[in-house]
């Protein structure tokens, strides 16, 4: 059995400056561009080195994921099915990972990220803020074996919590 880690992340703060812009195309705002690399740095300080970074196809999620991918010179894998998806879509995206991946981050949206936090931490994480990260560990042989009940809460990080 292998111990693997998953970082469930909500995208950083997005811009609402263009009211005619499609939701999927909204980019990060100034605060979002500031918070994402800071949170990637905090993850790095925890000693968690990512092997893969997955993201919803929304611009703000991709831009957030890119800050985390940059720490390991990784490419962001865009998964269109994660945009407006339920928790099971995130689980399915993880179950098809190659088994060489040990640590992965997956970025998406609320309310799904808060629901995932509740599934893993049984309501002890009230709300996942923008750029909030929930880290969970599991001991499984292959990603195909991943289930919600396999996940053990490790940590929750939010930008307002500081370093």
Q: Would you give an account of this structure?
A:
This protein is of the alpha/beta class and 163 residues long. It is built from four helices and six strands, in the order βαβαβαβαββ. A six-stranded mixed beta sheet has the order 3-2-4-1-5-6, sandwiched between helices. Helix 2 (59-70) links the parallel strand 2 and strand 3. The longest helix is centred in the first third of the chain and has 16 residues, at 30-45. It is globular, with a radius of gyration of 15 Å.
Overall body shape: globular
Overall average residue pLDDT? 95
The counted number of beta strands is: 6
Q: What kind of sheet is the major sheet? A: 6 strands, mixed
Q: What structural category characterises the helix and strand content?
A: alpha/beta
Low confidence ranges:
none
Order of secondary-structure elements: EHEHEHEHEE
Task: Tell me the distance between the termini.
Answer: 33 Å
Q: How are the SSEs placed, and which strands pair?
A:
Elements: E1 2-10, H1 30-45, E2 52-55, H2 59-70, E3 76-78, H3 87-95, E4 103-108, H4 112-121, E5 133-140, E6 152-157
Short structural summary:
The chain is of the alpha/beta class.
Please give a handful of descriptors for the protein shown.
4 helices, 163 residues, single chain
